[in-house]
Amino acid sequence: MSSATYDPDTFHLAEKEDHDHAHGMGGTLLGFWIYLMSDALIFATLFAVYGVLSTSYAGGPTPGEIFELPLVAVNTAILLVSSITYGFAMLAMEEDRLNATRLWLVVTALCGIGFVSVEMYEFSTLVAEGAGPTRSGFLSGFFALVGTHGLHVTIGIVWIGVMLVQLGQRGLHVENRKRLQCLSMFWHFLDVVWIGVFTFVYLLGVLR
Amino acid sequence: MSAAPKDQAVRDDAVHSHGDTHGHGSRRGYLTGFVLSAILTAIPFWLVMSGALANRQATVLVIVALAIVQILVHTVAFLHVNTKAENGWTLMAMVFTAVLVAITICGSLWIMYHLNSNMMPMDAGTM
Fold first, then answer.
1. B12 CB within 8 Å of a chain A CB
2. Angle of CA points B34, A204, B56, to nearest 5°
3. Interface list for A 158-177 with B (CB within 8 A)
4. Do B9 and A96 touch (CB under 8 A)?
5. What's the whole-model pTM score?
6. Which of A203, A104, A119 is nearest to A153 (CA)?
7. DSSP codes of every residue in A54-109
8. What is the interface size between A and B, counted as CB pairs within 8 Å?
9. Given an 8 Å threshold on Cβ–Cβ distance, is B30 in contact with A49?
10. pLDDT by residue (tens digit) across B25-57?
């Protein structure tokens, strides 16, 4: 490595990070992955609660009566597109293209905002129809599960906003790359959870 | 000092080129994952919305199977889980979590289903 051309004192810390990075960013990514796995367990319990309560209608509406699959399909498409746009942001980061990275992050955040907006519209329609979380066990489980996922997406959008500010201030330095990779895992993880939601809650619900 | 960010970027690049390339995926990998998951999403929605399969049981089995395949596609193409990343520990943690998730969901459904069945006569009597 041609490190002789760099001042060792100035770059001591950065160099240490780099070496760790070559072997997995000094454990940061693995640590964040472990957090995501614990988050997966939160969703597993919420899926289990929904599964147990999914037929407890209490005389209220059934999934087939209140779920609008076209709306869910649109939302699924939005989230899927946001996954590939985040992927493009990561590829731009690998190529050291700061502006392209920021552009794809903005596109991803806009997709996320679209997703949450459609979900808020769906929730408000349900509540207006008298199918709010207090109506039956089925609806309590539904709002808890889908609402928790929506909350995660909202936090992801806020995180993208924070990263845009940090990228604007300091560019693609080692720490920001690390953060963007953690956010990448977070964002794609939420898409994986959504596969479970649209399959087990919406599609199987309408089939019931 | 003014040249520092650029130099650092060059250094990062050098490290990337020999160290961590398999951890992030390629453009081809992302696009393949995207096309696959688009197909794997479209089929179940189409099956349910059009009612193409007359048999409800068959439809359920197909869409659950497609969901499992799609989760695997996302894990490999977008989350880059493989045997090499972090010396295999991400994969190990994921397999362990998958076991816990399966126990939590299947166990809850199993126990609560039987609990519900056993409570039925009392429900019928009091209602």
1. yes
2. 110
3. 170-174, 177
4. yes
5. 0.83
6. A119
7. TT--TTS--HHHH--HHHHHHHHHHHHHHHHHHHHHHHHHHTT-HHHHHHHHHHHH
8. 159
9. no
10. 789 999 999 999 999 999 999 999 998 888 889
Residue B70 near chain A (CB below 8 Å): yes
Q: What gap in Å lies between CA A100 and CA B30, rounded to an integer?
A: 17
Sign for the pseudo-dihedral over CA of B18, B19, B22, B28? negative
User: Residue A119: CA atoms inside 13 Å, Cβ hemisphere, count?
Assistant: 25
What is the secondary structure of chain B as a DSSP string?
Answer: -TTHHHHHHHHHHHHHHHSSGGGT--HHHHHHHHHHHHHHHHHHHHHHHHT-SS-HHHHHHHHHHHHHHHHHHHHHHTS---SSGGGGHHHHHHHHHHHHHHHHHHHHHHHHHHHHHHHHHHHHHH-
- Report the complex ipTM: 0.84
**Does the beta carbon of B25 lie under 8 angstroms from any beta carbon of chain A?**
yes
Q: At what angle do helices A174-196 and A69-94 cross, to 10 degrees?
A: 160
CB neighbours of B58 closer than 8 A, spacing ≥ 6?
none
Among candidates B24, B31, B79 on the partner chain, residue whose Cβ is nearest the Cβ of A94: B24
Inter-chain CB proximity B44 and A21 less than 8 Å = no
Say which amino acid occupies A12.
H
Q: What is the pLDDT of residues A9-67, one digit of tens each?
A: 454 454 444 444 444 466 899 999 999 999 999 999 999 999 999 989 999 999 999 99
CA distance B50 to chain A (A): 11
Among A150, A152, A174, A177, smallest CA distance to A163 is for A177
Q: How far is it, in rounded angstroms, from Cα A90 to Cα A92?
A: 5
Q: Is A33 on the interface with B (CB under 8 A)?
A: yes
